[in-house]
Amino acid sequence: MTQALLSELRATLGQAQVLSEGDLSAYERDWRKRYAGKALGVVRPGSTAEVAAVVRLAAAHGVSIVPQGGNTGLVGGGVPDASGAQLLLSLQRLNRVRELDAANLTLTAEAGCILQAVQAAAAAQQLLFPLSLAAEGSCTIGGNLAANAGGTQVLRYGNARELCLGLEVVTPQGKIWDGLGGLRKDNTGYDLRDLYIGSEGTLGIITAATLKLYPAPLAQMTALAACASLEAAVALLGLAQARAGSSLTGFEVMNGFALSLVAKHFPQLTQPLGPQPWTVLLELSDSESEAHARAVFEGLLEAALEQGLIHDAAVAESLEQSHALWHLRESIPLAQSEEGLNIKHDIALPVSRIPAFVASTDAALRARWPGIRLVDFGHLGDGNLHYNVQAPEGMDAAAFLRSQERAVNELVFDAVLAHGGSISAEHGIGQLKREELARRKHPVALELMRAIKKALDPQGLMNPNRLI
Predict the structure, then answer these.
(1) What architecture does CATH give domain 1-216?
(2) 3-state class of 84 per DSSP?
């Protein structure tokens, strides 16, 4: 039966777009090299109609589908299991920008569009698509929406969900829902768009999206600031919000160990402030003028110095210097990877609770595992912390992860919930946190989620055993 399905798929898509032999590891293994499976085949449709045809054929044969965009996810949600019975559906050929409506400030792009290409299409019209994250050169719009990606500008513009006005989706039955309208007000029933965003391919396959654009800022100012404590960083955030308002578009925090890993593995990257307990990267985008932006920025930093919230700062004097400061922040995950396997936590907390969470959880982890190294960094402005655990120096990192990950997660997630937080902020659930979600999500919420899944995907063929 599986060979019959592959034959039908080849007749529908063409021989070259159905892969079942040779090295398929680029599709079957996640980029962290943590999850690897075996697909029945990899299909590469080139249009929404072809996606729908693939889904109808798979449903007729009772074969489950794993949708995949850029395969840059961190929770194992976009790779097949080890059964060899799942069809991997790559959306990379659906990569066109269909329309840019400058007057409506919208752009419609297919799911396989690389995020950077969408940013560039907007910039070519002096507009801004503000979703920005380290993987923007390889992640795709469909994947960003399926996981409700966050990134570095959530503070001002919101998550992927807030940046999407409409979707085109192929249902588990192979029907096409065209919901691509670029309306900002549409009060005609359930919001199906929000149902699919963040669903990680478990309810249907996003094939295109209509996205919000913004006028490009006339000026941007970027700086690093040194803080003696996380409490000072939180106070600096409050001061920045009071002084800059919505012009504050980025507010990232990095602990000293995180940047020490960058210095160790990427010594060519200049760190203008040197080693600090905590370093904040803040950015202001101004729609008035560069002079106005500089005046607000310099006034903010002067006030922070006077109030003792920071003790040093380095302001970028050019776009090149601004990129260099951001490159430091974006190199932390790469430096961690060079240092060895690590236990990642993508958590959300009320901003006011972050210092207490970090202090108590750091202490608890170090007491239980002496020598453990903590890589704390993330989007402090929206309460999203990447709270990662590196094995003690000299210890086999892979062995530490295999033997201690469950216990580390238990301690960290207990602390997250005790402080009113969430175990997933922007990376999703996938297979990495599926069991944790089942244990920790409110039972009524889980009941509702499972009812939606059963109603929309009664055969259970859309990315099974992911999320719920």
Answers:
(1) 2-Layer Sandwich (3.30)
(2) coil
